[in-house]
Amino acid sequence: MPPEGRITRFAPSPTGPLHLGHAYAALVASQRAVAGRFLLRIEDIDQSRCRTEFEAQIYEDLRWLGLRWPEPVMRQSTRLPAYRAALEKLAALGVIYPCSCTRADIRAALSAPQEMAAVHGPDGLVYPGTCRARPMEQALPDDALRLNMRAALSHCGPLSFIETGPLHDALHPLDPDWMIENVGDVVLSRRDMGTSYHLSVVVDDAAQGITEVTRGDDLFEASFIHVLLQALLELPRPSYYHHKLIRDDSGKRLAKRDNARAIAQLRAEEASAQDIRLMLGL
Ligand code: GLU
Question: Distances in Å between the alpha carbon of 42 and those of 20, 36, 74?
């Protein structure tokens, strides 16, 4: 995709102050769309952790960094009907099922002697499949919904995606065996949210017409799940640009709790937006 047609986004969750890592992600996204469109999306599906004051601070910090974006900003908390429609489509394909397992149930099932060894994949512990045979007609209001990975993969032909970032090869084929063993039956609708990160991000990247997803390299393997969901939902497939993660002086990845690296804190210490770009090597 030539830069003039590129549409990128920055998709923060308002669960804490923006720090240098977020600034880097936002600036990379806007640079990649320098001749195209840079969009903002607020990922606030986890209402127990999101706060409006963090959202307000995000807008303020990003403007201060010199970024501009079209209004209105997409907010995931207003998009539940779109996520529900996607789940209905997946249910019609027969690739999701209801699940009532708690984390403790999953750990117990995985420690039973006859079970497979516990595998920690990009989405956490690979689900042992306890509820896999349950039909959607028997879904209870408190159930989560999981993707039946094997059934989902068998619905699609060979899949791959294009990576445009500097950290990986350009072409990434999905290996179905790796997906089954290392990702497994991921949750697509959490009982407390009616959706999940993976489902929302795929539905919304398509709704916003994103042509290149730019984000931190910690989400590289999540892209495999997203590409599969795009195929099942017949959505266009963007290319992906995964960038390096910004680390603190001891080499640890920055987290929201590292207030010392919060943009608001650096502003209070009278850093300029240009100083931040220089600190980030941009
Ligand atoms: N909302 C996610 C985060 O704050 C980013 C998701 C994405 O870029 O796909 O980490």
Answer: 18, 20, 6
CA of 9, closest atom in ligand 1:
8
CA of residue 85 to ligand 1 center, whole Å: 22
- Does the pTM surpass 0.90? The reply is yes
Which of 208, 217, 219, 241, when mutated, tests ligand 1's pocket best, judged by the most ligand atoms within 8 Å of its CB? 219
Q: Whose CA is nearest to atom 10 of ligand 1?
A: 12
For the chain, list residues with pLDDT below 70. 115-116, 254-258, 260
* CATH architecture assigned to 1-78+247-282: 3-Layer(aba) Sandwich (3.40)
How far is the C-alpha of 47 from the C-alpha of 193, rounded, in Å?
A: 8
Tokens 């010199």, located at residue: 66
Residue ranges covered by each domain of the chain: 1-78+247-282, 79-208+218-235
